[in-house]
Amino acid sequence: MELSRLSSRDVPSLVRLQQQALIVGVVALLAGAVGAVMNIDQFFRSWLIGFLFCLSLSLGSLALLMLQHLSGGQWGMVGRRIFEAGSRLLPVVAILAVPVIIGLPRIFAWAVPGAEANPIIHEKQPYLNFTFFVARALFYFVFWMALMWSLNKWSDEQDSGKAISKVDSIRFRTVSAPGLLFLVITVTFASVDWVMSLEPEWFSTIFGLLTIAGYGLTGLAFTIIVLAAINKDHPQGTLLTPRHFHDFGKLLLAFVMLWAYLSFSQFLIIWAGNLPEEIPWYIARIRGSWGAVAILLVVGHFFLPFGLLLSAGLKKRSATIAKVAVWVLVMRLVDLIWYVAPAFRHFTGEGEHAGPGLIPMHWMDIAIPVGLTALWVYLFVRQLASRPLFAVNDPYLKETFAHEAAH
């Protein structure tokens, strides 16, 4: 099959993934609907986790797309369509934010009527209030979608043959350079709004960077999974080579190390400072059953993938590195739940979320994020099918293809 005609519809593994995602999504969200009838407060809180995970997939894709345009690396050329398809789901993620807005008083302590009686919340009222919170959310999504729309529109023009010269490609970098900078800034503020403000008494100056590293890791792990599926069904019919998977594996290792470095730095600074407005945040997450989750993250989110990704041979085998990427995605969800769910002890009491049970999280904290993520994956495959799997008219891709042919 010609490279220009290769579509995700020609990849049976992706077709099966789409079908399975639809089934899992429907079942999980039906379970979530039943859960909403049983406990509407918990439904909104679990929805926040699912929304944030889907957001990390789309924003991680957008960040990697701009990084690819800036670097021009061959690793990014083979993953560009995946980045673009993931970024095009930002409007869907924006819709997923609506229930978060509706359930604001059930999620955020500062949004509860009478919360201003708390001196700390009272001092932060000019920033933490319903109107300004919604306005900021609208600004974030308008900015993110403007970036997404521009880069995807120009890519579509390349596909149609309207803009295929290197001069035309300069505009990708012209937008991506400031776009990536402002993406970092907006994600930092969004992480404060949607995660850190769950506990208004707590703050961390490194939290924005930690969130950005997590988003990049999420997007990169998902990209590896999709590329491995393509390579499984068309090992000789694409540009993909063991060297490309080795490059992605090195990037995955770098992001795992960056996440671990920032996570440990945050913990070390707060633990050593032992300040009453900061230390309770960690105490709630390392005591009882949440402590077991914290250990799981240390081992499963860092030591295990770090040890595996040190192997050059493993990184070159698409099927093997895909399994590592799946594990990293699972750990990303666990990490998000560990950050968010214990914050609701202010509503539910310590016993419900951090008691002696083996699994401290509510079952909806898993079901709803899984359902929303499955829906995201289903729509992602549809978006991926709307264009060829590779940007065949991009002049840099042609150079990549010629270089591979020469070797």
Structure in words:
The chain is mostly helical and 407 residues long. It has one domain (3-406). Helix content is 77%, strand content 0%. It is built from 18 helices and no strands. The chain has helices spanning 12-38, 40-71, 74-87, 90-102, 104-107, 119-123, 130-160, 166-194, 207-233, 242-273, 279-286, 288-309, 312-316, 318-340, 345-348, 350-354, 364-385, 395-406. Mean pLDDT is 89; it is low at 350-357.
- Round the mean pLDDT to the nearest integer and report it: 89
Beta-strand percent range: under 5%
Instruction: Note the main sheet.
Output: none
The succession of helices and strands, N to C, reads HHHHHHHHHHHHHHHHHH
Could you tell me the radius of gyration in angstroms?
21 Å
Tell me the number of helical segments per DSSP (H or I, 4 or more residues long): 18
Which bin fits the share of residues in helices? over 70%
* Low-pLDDT runs: 350-357
The 3D shape can be described as globular
Indicate how many domains the architecture comprises: 1
- First CA to last CA: what distance? 21 Å
Computed structural class:
mainly alpha
* Number of separate strands: 0
Brief rundown of the structure:
With 407 residues, this protein is an all-alpha fold. It has 18 helices and no strands. It starts with 11 loop residues before the first helix and ends with a helix.
Main attributes?
mainly alpha
How does the SSE layout of this entry go?
Layout: H1 12-38, H2 40-71, H3 74-87, H4 90-102, H5 104-107, H6 119-123, H7 130-160, H8 166-194, H9 207-233, H10 242-273, H11 279-286, H12 288-309, H13 312-316, H14 318-340, H15 345-348, H16 350-354, H17 364-385, H18 395-406
Helix pairs in contact: 1-2, 1-17, 2-3, 2-4, 2-8, 2-9, 2-17, 3-9, 3-17, 4-7, 7-8, 8-9, 9-10, 9-14, 10-12, 12-14
